[in-house]
Structure formats: C-alpha cells, structure tokens
Automatic annotation (TrEMBL):
This is CPXCG motif-containing cysteine-rich protein. It comes from Halomonas litopenaei. It comes from the Bacteria. It holds the Pfam family Zn_ribbon_21.
Length: 69
C-alpha cells in the first residue's frame, strides 16, 4: 500500500500536546501499536479500531506508554 493512499487520524500527544497526524494502515485491521511522538520522542501507545468490512478507521485511542488502555 502506498503511503499517499493511507488514511490519517488527527490527535494530540499525551505528553507534550503536539498535534499529530497518525497514518494508519487499515489493512492490518484493529490493532495496538507504539510509535514515538515526532515532537518530544516519547512513546505513545495507540489502540486503533478498524471496521472489518469497509477498512475505515472507527476510532483511535492514544495514551502514554504506562497507561492501560
């Protein structure tokens, strides 16, 4: 899948409050992942919910690395 065609989800870093556009590969289905904030480099825990039929992003929850989601 080409990055230009991947959907993104706007959110704010739970550490530094920087605005982030998270690019999501919806072909993975619903999943959890960790990525570093591009501003402060802190690890962000993402829980991404994807519709199994349409592959649309349903929701994205972001928390700090220690937060249980």
């Amino acid at each position: 899948m080409h990055e230009q065609t991947l959907p993104s989800w706007p959110l704010d870093c739970p550490y530094c409050d920087a605005h982030i556009e998270l690019v999501v590969d919806t072909s993975q289905g619903s999943h959890e992942t960790w990525e570093d904030c591009p501003q402060c480099c802190a690890p962000i825990h993402y829980r991404i919910e994807v519709d199994a039929v349409t592959e649309d992003i349903v929701s994205v929850a972001a928390g700090d690395d220690d937060e249980v989601m």
